[in-house]
């Protein structure tokens, strides 16, 4: 900032000592020091604020680029999904059209007594059952480990409270 060497500082100090006087010089020097400190803090605060605003602008730009990339990915996924859905609908429409064109007699049959039997076992159409979640059967799960193994391995089959367990394993007193 200022190119002040040691010789210039000594000259300024000598002039200040003559002009201000030896009694007031320490007070003036202290005040000049506090003013310079305040000025330095102000300059550093302004620099920090400028740096923060620059970083904030960079973060905003980065956020915008990430959001635009996410929008592009989302739109491409939606386009792919709509294309797949269209292909699926076309394929199922063809299957439905084929199913509607077969004669009704191939789906229904009557037995020799004249009773209705429902679907024809020789029909070309296949009936697919709807998906059913395999529910967990706790009885089967419980029976998966044999009782003899549980007894040998020490698996507890009955729950006992802490006090009952202490009383059960307390050494017997001899009278």
Helix-strand layout with pairing:
Elements: H1 6-20, H2 25-101, E1 108-110, E2 116-119, H3 138-142, H4 147-153, H5 162-169
Antiparallel strand pairs: 1-2
Outline the structure in words.
The chain has 175 residues and is mainly α. 64% of the residues lie in helices and 4% in strands. The protein has helices at residues 6-20, 25-101, 138-142, 147-153, 162-169, and strands spanning 108-110, 116-119. A two-stranded antiparallel sheet has the order 1-2. Strand 1 (108-110) and strand 2 (116-119) form a beta hairpin. It is flat. The relative contact order is 0.03.
Extended strand count = 2
CA radius of gyration: 46 Å
Q: Based on helices, strands and strand pairing, what is the structural class?
A: mainly alpha
What is the N-to-C succession of helices and strands? HHEEHHH
Quick structural overview:
With about 180 residues, the chain is mostly helical. Helices cover about 65% and strands about 5% of the residues. It has helices at about 5-20, 25-100, 140, 145-155, 160-170; strands at about 110, 115-120.
Keywords:
175 residues, mainly alpha, two-stranded antiparallel ribbon, flat
